[in-house]
## 1
Amino acid sequence: MSFLPTILNGLMVGGLYGLFGLGLAFAFGIMRIVNIAHGEFIVLGAYIGASLLSVTHLPLPVVIVLVAVITFALGWALQTVMLNRMIGPNPVPAMVATMGLSIIIRNALVQYYGADIRAIDIGPLQDQGVSIFGTSIGVLPIIIFCTAVLLFVLMHLLLTRTTLGRAFRAAADDFEILETLGFNRKRVYAIAMGLAVTLSAIAGLLLAIRSSYSPYSGVERLLISFEVVIIGGIGSLRGSFLAGLFVGVVQLIGLRINPNSGPLFGHLAFFLILLAKQANLPALFLRRRT
Amino acid sequence: MTLLELEHVDVFYRDLQATFDVSLTVDEGETVAIIGANGAGKSTLLRTMIGLTQCRNGRIRLAGEDVTRLRCDLLARRGVALVPEGRRLFSSLTVEENLLLAMARARKGPWTLNRVYDLFPAMKEFRSHRASDLSGGQQQMVAISRALLTNPRVLLCDELSLGLAPKVISEIYACFDGIRKEGVSIVLVEQDTVRARSASDRLYCLLKGKVRLAAKSSTVTPEAIREAYFGETRA
């Protein structure tokens, strides 16, 4: 039996994990805000998308754009109404506040949609496949992966080619000086949080199309986001993307070896990387030789 | 005509009072030096002038308008610019990106990318370098250019000479004539009293947050400066 389809599928889902991590890292890199409600926004993206699909019957790309607009507004409001009042050298108030928010969102979802595990059905596209390298792979995962790559490319262009992107990077370096150049710090932050939430919510919606979700999926998604950020580093698009691919592949290979393992192998691999980062491996190696 | 005016300004960091009843004026096109020892409140005054620190008591006027409670970014758009102590360039951006960012919210005025490259021709060679890879003198050129590109009416310079070689300091100060020709007012904070005196029209000397001396730079004696600087009374 070949692991090639498993690896390919892992890469496909890993693109989305990369987006999860990017959203979390974006908010932390620019504003030093650890958004504990990140996972809930990922799930919220899926629920909003599912509702739009079932109520309006619009085509999926339109729904994705609508979800992007709605979640951008949510992220903007979150920053403007709540988090902009808590910015400062101490990151804890924002963590506690977003933790509370995550509980509110989770329970609101249970109240409104019920606790059932759901999946989004988008019709015949879900079952189509193509043959690559002699293995069959779904058309839908490929489209989803391409969307993830596209979002990464757009983010790269935004950060390097536009004034807004430069302002984001500058705000991460020294927000006071950015203010002395005439930029409204709180507005820059609101846009950044809007984007961070949008990226995650779109990824959450896409993930919901190819796997299942429930109001309680947020915690799991948040954990994946943290793993991607820690493996890939903050402030590196490429790092987030590659770390997402890594986590995705490891998780699916683990599931293939033991179908009951769930996300265990992804977490184990993360744990090993954490150990490797802590231990000074070259030094250990050298000491043993002398 | 008076461009920037501070009246009886008290600035606090929590309970610690940094400046006491400071009043000073800067006329249009004038260069004013603020000198004083470490901790005299010089940098605090500059931060207050651009709105990074709010004063508890007193008034600040810009071109006659009360701007005491105005946010920093709005003050910047009305023509106050800061060359901060220690340069503080955006280290993950390239030199040119630093400059482009300054132009994004700039007022209309004489300063353009080409003009600052004319002012510091050496800057063209490292325009695509990361700001963190530059030497102190190169960073200072970028920091000054960044502030100029906002086309300020008043340019606040905090310790331009900090950590630079004497030769580089002279080069930086040599460019000031070109900047002053454009009619911009300059507030110069310096620890180097000789340099501050020769580069300015008037000077204020601060001691422990209070103005001890306000005088024309051309007529003030070194003895008077020393007395105000150290707070010595002649024995």
Note: Chain A has a mean pLDDT of 90.
## 2
Amino acid sequence: MNESEVRRRVRQFIESTFLGEMDPSELQDDSSLEQLHLVDSMRSMDLILFVEETFGVTVENDEALPENFDSVSNVVGFVTRKRAGG
Amino acid sequence: MLVSQVTLLQEYLERNAAKYAAKTALVFKQERLTWGEVNEAADRLANCLRAAGVERGDRVVIYLDNGVQSAVSIFGVLKAGAVFSVVNSQTKSDKLLYMLNDCRAKALITSKYLSRTYAEVLPDAPHLKVAFIAESETDIAHVRVMEYQAALAAASSLPLPVRSITVDLAAIIYTSGSTGDPKGVMLTHQNMVAAAESITTYVRNVHDDVVVNVLPMSFDYGLYQWLMVNQFGGTLVLDSSFNYPAAVLKVIAEEQVTGLPVVPTIASLLAQFAQTGTTLPGVRYVTNTAAALSPTHIEVLKKVCPNARIYSMYGLTECKRVCYLPPEDLDRKPDSVGRAMPNMETFVLDPETQQEMPRGEVGELVVRGPQVMKGYWEKPEVTANWLKPGKIPGESWLWTGDFFKMDEEGYLYFVSRKDDIIKSRGEKVSPKEVENALYALAGVQDAAVIGTPDPVFGEAIRAFLVLSPGVSYTKQQVISHCGARLEGFMVPKYVTFLTEMQKTTSGKITKKDLVGYAREHFSAGDEV
């Protein structure tokens, strides 16, 4: 799976699960999910579970950080690094 | 505790700026401010507010997430002699407008990233004259908008002359009521100083304490972390949420945090770290409020914070805090929320006769003390139901609406609430408010909301719906609809569709039946 396919799937998950009635065009790839109030502690766990199940990577407790999960781009970057073994 | 002569909240800040000007007062992500810097920024904001026409006693709404801007704004408003009201940043347009108009706010302090909510309602807030908005300077209808940082930079840093006195209002904190309309709890400087002094006494705060706060400052428990740090001249490490527990734990270790305030939801989220052996040995106290800690939570907190004194507490916004369980009694009386805090007196009374209940018997908890609110903002009838004449002539006592019992040693045990308010994630949720949002969905015939026990949320919101013939929604559609109208903690976690609901002869939905239905059908867990 290449990076653009990872991005497509991450976006699709966030749009279908978190956006509710918000217009998807308002969500930029680097928008903070927290600042848009799209995630809370439960939803950030849902996102982590989605990443683990969809991309076959393991998220350690100390990797559940905003720099890895707080935007579409951060998630894509994290998945890419993990899949490359980083 | 520092013995002080403080009578106004902002005097705490001024005292720290004089004594520890170069000491770190506030840490928020990459930003660090000293006491001198916080004080100067607050003076600048006070001058901005005054120049914009904000006078003594005027209300200023602070609509922001936790951050430097919100922490500074609280004291800027006080230094202008005005009254602050911190509104949760998750608040949606309708409720924000209600609050702006209810307290007739003259000024608003916010940030452009929240414009989706505030921009559409400002034209309908006739009393609002000015808004200080980070990263925006475009006027909205009749409201003059000034860019927050630019306005502060251009303002004088000289303190304004003080005209406030101790019985002046310092804050209005909105709290959910069972009727659905939020009520503004009026707190004077005297109320808030008394509460801060009492709590820092029993928690034994010292000026070396570093306290972390992830709870919103619209919630009195979150707000008081900042006020109390001001009281003892410590350091506050702010975060905007506990959405990423690992990030918060990292900051706790890096900043050598000594004080960790939690709600049961945070204790639940810490469980995974307890399993992997993560410890925070530098934390010397943990406080918990909103709901009693379960034995599992206590175990988790003891594992993660092995050197901490753990305080189980109870309170309500109307008087901030009522009681705390001394940590040495936690093993002996784990179900108790302890005894009255310093400078507070508690009674368990019969609601009918107002006589004291015998020990061990259930009655309504009633309190007296300097922390008790002045009343609800412009709601004298509601106030009269809560503040009633006490046994001491001339005094009003606060009837908490919560049923308690007291044991032979004077320890208090929470039994139940008098109304049907739900406590989820540490916040009060009015079922009525959620039901109103559900009724806004086309084709909803009946809607009823109850709280359901939840290991992480304390109570989760469970909605029952009867739809009109031919109408259908998925659970996710209902949840999304609510998410667009309500703060996150109010959004139902569970949605159940029914074909009918039992009603009383007067047409009121009998929620007791729904509680029974939930117990019967979902005791083994939900299908979602």
Note: The longest strand of chain B covers residues 396-406.
